[in-house]
Amino acid sequence: MITFSIERFSDVYREMYPLLVEHYDEISQHKEHGVPLEPLSDVYAAREAAGTLLMVIAREGGTIVGYFIAVIAPALHYGSCLTCSPDIFYVKWDRRRDGTAAAMFQFVEKEIRRRGVKVWMVGSKHAHDVTQLFEYLGFEPFEVTYAKWIGE
């Protein structure tokens, strides 16, 4: 059985780090450009201390099988619009076809509604498209983001 909970970065970071590496190895486009995985743990800790970091952890039998990390803060152009902006999310490969991701996002939505969030942004990498999940959950296309690697 999968359980979801809000956990503190400072409590779970070391435990979840191997999953971050797995995530990086599987889908990172930065890796393709020689950019190593170097999480800014001090920045995460500062956002946690400021109360703007949201970390939802999915566990099965006590073991982390997924996570959703985001920042909750007013939008820079719309100060009265509390926004949930994505950092990263990941579900282990063997839990992707059983509804774990959808259930995790539903858990996140319940929590951010409780916090008064007005807009929830998510993103899907072109090379690892999860549009079907987002549409199932009621998200609508909002903006397309482009990237151009200019420094190697």
Give an overview in words.
By secondary structure, the protein is α+β, with helices and mostly antiparallel strands. The chain has a single domain, classed as Aminopeptidase. The chain is built from 4 helices and 5 strands. It has helices spanning about 10-25, 40-50, 100-115, 130-135; strands spanning about 1-5, 55-60, 65-75, 80-90, 120. The mean pLDDT is about 95. GO terms for molecular function: acyltransferase activity, transferring groups other than amino-acyl groups. It comes from Paraburkholderia rhynchosiae.
Give the helices and strands as they follow along the chain.
EHHEEEHEH
In angstroms, what is the radius of gyration?
A: 16 Å
Mean pLDDT: 93
Q: Label the CATH architecture.
A: 3-Layer(aba) Sandwich
| Helical residues, percent | 25-40%
Characteristics:
Aminopeptidase; 152 residues; N-acetyltransferase domain-containing protein; 5-stranded mixed beta sheet; GNAT_dom; alpha+beta; Acyl_CoA_acyltransferase; globular
SSE blueprint:
Blueprint: E1 2-6, H1 9-27, H2 41-50, E2 53-60, E3 63-74, E4 82-91, H3 100-114, E5 119-120, H4 131-136
Parallel strand pairs: 4-5
Antiparallel strand pairs: 1-2, 2-3, 3-4
